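Closing statement on the malonyl-coenzyme A sub-project.
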Amino acid sequence: MNHNLFATFERRMAARGQAPFITTRKDITTREGRDYSYADALDVSARLAGALVAMGVTPGDRVAVQVDKSPEAILLYLACLKVGGVYLPLNTGYTAEEIRYFLGDAEPALFVCRPAALEAARAVAAACGDVRVETLGTAADGSLMEATAQATAHDTIIPRASDDLAAILYTSGTTGRSKGAMLTHANLGSNAASLVEAWRFTEQDRLIHALPIFHTHGLFVACNVILMAGASMRFLPKFDVDEIFEELAEGTTMMGVPTFYTRLLKDPRLTREACANMRLFTSGSAPLTAETHQDFEAATGHAILERYGMTETNMNTSNPYDGERIAGTVGMPLPGVEVRITERDSGHHEPLPQGQIGMLEVRGPNVFKGYWRMPEKTREELLEDGFFITGDLALIDERGYVQIVGRDKDLVISGGYNVYPKEVESHIDEMKGVVESAVIGLPHPDFGEGVTAVVVAEEGAALQEDAIIAALANKLAKYKQPKRVFFVDSLPRNTMGKVQKNQLREQFKATYQ
Ligand code: MLC
Ligand code: AMP
């Protein structure tokens, strides 16, 4: 049997024929959009697959993609699956320096970039074994689409085993070095099927899609679910409050990070009437405060359905569709997913009594295969019994709902994007005049947490906040850059010499309030 995820998608897509798959907003002047029915998507993805094969992509090859959001980028993902390639999406915010690491580590057969970034991409690719570079723009333009127009359709779905790789998604690590999470066809397929069921997606659904498509949330949770349900999605280039209000009347569902909801709540147009056609709002990637949950329900009558997941695991838990959606909880394990809370640092992974806070560990068909070319890291986090150590601290309440209460990992989540302090600190520490630094997340009204640096300068060094931020511009994606930099004489440490970030978070807690 062919376990290629594309085979499952293709059956649904063929059955849906001329039904809409992805629609885009019309251009204001031309009044034209690019709408793909399922039949169109099958046709173009088959030709894209033909182009990939002609470019030398063979089964198991990585295809790295750093492009702006467009329907064609999703068709490229589908084409990549079809030919047995491993899709490797990259955040559009990554700098050339960051891209160099990913290309060097993943050794892709092909790198697809934005047309405007071609020169820079070629320079990076040349330094990484001369990776082939093609372009894809947001107007169905670029060399990849030109090749596709000439390509013969590739009709065969390359056979894949269930644990063959479908995608690699990079996720930063506590050591500052990003790790490629290897996701299999079975990981993605099983999770999408669970979510369609859990969230009652049907062919009638129209998802308002305003997330980026290079992470688990916007790519797998959103697009795979839509494909499996045979539903449709309205593709917005990014989250924009005005555009969301224009879409609510015809949408039925929206998936968002908490920042989407706090921004919508600030707008007087958020009413029951405005959301009358909607049946479901979901939230994830970062904690949704109970206050936002309650305010949203008061304004719209909709209880946001919060779920919890990770790049390595896809979605693990979800509040119920029909039962009570409890604010401040991430619900119960999805079917087939096991969750246990263990004593952190104990090393024996015995479940703690119900109600106690500990390390959250998960096991199931959703859990990834390991980190790309990092067997030791994989062994540290993915246990022999199949449980994955999430790094999140949680408890399970008496009703069986999971509450995430904190993180054991030193991680900041800003607007749904992960920022590992170590990565930012190492860049700041390299700067002239810096003794050391600590990067922390502080409560931020818009992004949930705001990345903040606390720096110890050498005596007599004339370091400025602006200069430090400016010096990071070419090194780190914008969302990783500190929004503020503070100077202190020394960093607080415990007797073991470990920096007490709690104290710093307390000292600077009012920064963005
Ligand atoms: C943008 N900026 C950010 C930022 N996004 N800074 C910190 N954190 C962020 N998340 C920068 C911009 O570059 C800009 O800088 C300034 O902040 C203000 O920008 P903005 O216009 O207000 O931001 P906007 O473009 O509207 O983006 C905000 C956002 C976006 C929240 C809509 O970040 C977003 O779509 N986040 C979703 C992330 C996501 O999909 N996560 C899923 C990960 S998967 P300047 O200086 O130029 O003004 C995962 C697993 C799971 O975690 O469970 O789902
Ligand atoms: P990522 O590595 O980008 O996949 O981010 C995964 C992390 O996001 C998890 O380990 C959690 O810390 C966090 N996360 C995701 N969903 C939620 C949620 N609903 N509540 C709290 N934290 C979440």
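The CA atoms of residues 343 and 358 lie 5 Å apart. With this model delivered, the sub-project is considered complete and its resources will be redirected to Aim 3.
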